Amino acid sequence: MSGADVRKLFEGGLYPFPPTKKANLIPPIVLAYIGDALYEVAVRQYLISKPNLRPHHLHTSATKMVSAKAQSRIVAHLDAVLTEEERDVVRQGRNAKSGSVPKNADVLEYRHATAFESLIGYLYYTEQIERMNELILLSIQYIEQ
User: Fold this and answer.
1) For the whole model, what pTM was predicted?
2) Is 5 a catalytic residue?
3) Options 5, 36, 79, 106, the catalytic residue
4) Which CATH superfamily is domain 29-144 in?
5) Which residues does the chain have with pLDDT short of 70?
């Protein structure tokens, strides 16, 4: 398979493994699964762009930025700049049943965090990479204040 063929497999994604369904048919929990990973990579890359590269500092800083509590605050902050389509994705993510809640978050925080992660996953799979990056940047700026 040529490089051009691989690119055609998944034009907007990081890797040549397109989803088996259109983004609007993927369950919100699955969108959150990939959205969580994408946001965490963005946060890690942001932290590595800063001068303090001690592993413990990187870990504690990343944990604060990707926690359910932080993501819950982020999704509330972003609401003013979201489109109706994005708000619909957030609503679906918030209402999705995951089956469990981490010990460090309450149910409401966890649902809002899932909503944020679903939005990131949706933007990724609809190849709205510029918009995804814009919202991630706004998120990082907000949480760093």
Assistant:
1) 0.89
2) no
3) 36
4) Ribonuclease III domain (1.10.1520.10)
5) 1-13
